[in-house]
Amino acid sequence: MRTFKADLHIHSCLSPCADLDMSPRSIVERSVEKGLDIIAICDHNSAENTEAAIRASEEYDLRVLPGLEINSSEEVHVLAIFEEAQKALHMQEIVYCYLTGSNRPDLFGDQVVADEFDEVKDFNERMLISATQLGIHEIVERVHRLGGLCIASHVDRPSYSIISHLGFVPSDLQLDALEISRLTERESAQSKIQGINNFPIMTFSDAHCLDDIGLTYTSFLLELPIIDDIRMALTEEFGRRVMFN
């Protein structure tokens, strides 16, 4: 067992709201500089840059987990994080079936698909920043069916959070954890947000620029930097646990 520093909410240049210098290799190199052990690439409604980030990390002691930040039909953001890129890409194909509209780069920014050497491969033309037609319950069910973790994003924020849009966390919603932003202290969130104490609480950077990577993170006591160990840490099984910074 050892402690792993994890920032599981990082956007790449594929997200229209992220800086264009958030390329796969640049993200990996900055994460290494910040002393992170595990990161997850979670772009809006897409996983197209995850494989490039994984390949860019192969020369470093850094585990890159593939993911997406899915925008539900209720306009609730949720992180879907997987062990394997193919599972994330499978979830992406499901999301794409429920995503309408085309991007307007002049309004929302470019959506760059890059390789592990930071060469531009393509521009995603879908409206990645918009809400899907998938409800939050269906998203959680489909992510779990693929073996992934489902974490409600930045529940303390006044927009695109399950609390801001629903006012509470439904009792039948099987989320694995809740994320609070770096702007809110854990103790403050526990006292102010209804129902938050029923779930493990984590904090990540939600980085959209290189300087934000690792500004806040969650530490885990794990044997291996894998989804199964993180899942056990969330339920405090077999010695794994979340360690608050």
* Number of DSSP helical runs: 8
- For the residues shown, what is the average pLDDT? 93
Q: CATH topology, what is it called?
A: TIM Barrel
Structural class, from helix and strand content? alpha/beta
Rg to the nearest angstrom? 16 Å
* Largest sheet features: 9 strands, mixed
Please supply descriptive tags for the structure shown above.
245 residues; alpha/beta; TIM Barrel; nine-stranded mixed β-sheet; two-stranded antiparallel ribbon; 26% helix; globular
Characterization of the model:
The chain has 245 residues and is an alpha/beta fold. It has a single domain, classed as TIM Barrel (Alpha-Beta Barrel). Helices cover 26% and strands 23% of the residues. Strands 9-8-7-4-3-2-1-10-11 form a nine-stranded mixed sheet. Strands 5-6 form a two-stranded antiparallel sheet. Helix 1 packs across helix 2. The protein is globular and about 40 Å long. The protein starts with a strand and ends with a strand. The model has no long low-confidence stretch (mean pLDDT 93).
